[in-house]
Amino acid sequence: MKKLVAFVAAAALLGGATSARAELVDKVAAVVNRDVIALSEVQQRAAPELSRLNDPDPSKRSEQRAQLMKTALDTLIGEKLMEAEITEMGISATEGEVDELVNDVRKQNNITDPAQFEQVLTAEGLTMTTYRDMLRKRILRDRLLRMKVGPKVKVTEEDLKAAYNQYARVEGEDSEVHARHILVAVDPKATEEQVAAARKKAEGIATEARREGMDFSALARARSEGPSAADGGDLGWFKRGVMVQAFEKVAFNLKEGEVSEPVRTNFGWHILKVEERRSVAATSYEEMRPKLENKILQEKTDKFLEQYVAELKQKASIDVKM
């Protein structure tokens, strides 16, 4: 279900599942023109990043939390302004288009039964109605961006060749690793104390894993809380760009047979062990071209989107109360 989880996350970032109105008991974080952003919306948007805070210094952790909340609010303000533009320009999406996108996600995850798909959404904390609304917002914003940003985004042959040369310098000297891991799961809504307790547990497992003669795969079967536990935590072979960044950074810096300190991701704390490494040849320019083009296109789109939202903010009435 990795594609579905990723798609849920992406859709949430493009217009989450929270209510656009503030409840009577909720605090107001900001007023954008006449639209209210509730504090609970900001907290929910920042929750994944907040759950990863692990600095032992309370004052630094407090500063980091404040910055994450500010970033989340800034993102929500931009979304409110884009929603107003969508309404003003009369951009719409049909139910059939939403149906098509839902079916695409189901196919990507090999789910043929609609009831099973709804069960997966429920496990992610979503209803089908909420999920469809998220996808509809995604379609509308994509259309707005194509109209406002798309004409400005061009990918040249020079862009592609420069990106490939950079890729070849890294990948040509790179390797792929065969790794195992042990997961100490952390609930997305866990408190800072619960996150710290899970880390302490993971540190204990890491110490145990480093004991001479310890069978890491057997330890993973006994202690891991992840889906790969039954396979001894085996992740198989993977290259860069496959795993989440924090996970990848540690994996590619470990030596064969080395066990890591606990690594934090959205799923919890991971203890990694690299079993083997092997060299890989750089993929040809022809094979890499579509991937590089998409990457550059996304980078340029993000840059122009930032400029576009900044222009909307200059013209708007924004009262931040948080």
CATH class of the largest domain: Mainly Alpha
Low-confidence stretches: 9-24
Strand order of the largest sheet: 4-3-6-5
Classification by helices and strands? alpha+beta
CATH topology of the largest domain: Triger factor/SurA peptide-binding fold
Number of strands: 7
Helix content: 55-70%
The run of helices and strands is HEEHHHHHHEHHEHEEHE
Gross CATH architecture of the largest domain? Orthogonal Bundle
Query: For this structure, what is the CATH homologous superfamily of the largest domain?
Result: Porin chaperone SurA, peptide-binding domain
The profile of the biggest β sheet is: 4 strands, antiparallel
Please state the overall shape, judged from the principal axes of the Cα atoms. Answer: globular
List the domain count as a whole number.
Answer: 2
Count every helix, treating DSSP H or I runs of 4 or more residues as helices.
11
Describe, in short, the structure shown:
The chain has 322 residues and is an alpha+beta fold.
List the helices and strands and how they pair.
Blueprint: H1 2-13, E1 28-32, E2 35-38, H2 39-50, H3 58-89, H4 95-108, H5 114-123, H6 128-148, H7 157-171, E3 175-185, H8 192-209, H9 216-223, E4 234-238, H10 245-251, E5 263-265, E6 268-279, H11 285-315, E7 318-320
Antiparallel strand pairs: 1-2, 1-7, 3-4, 3-6, 5-6
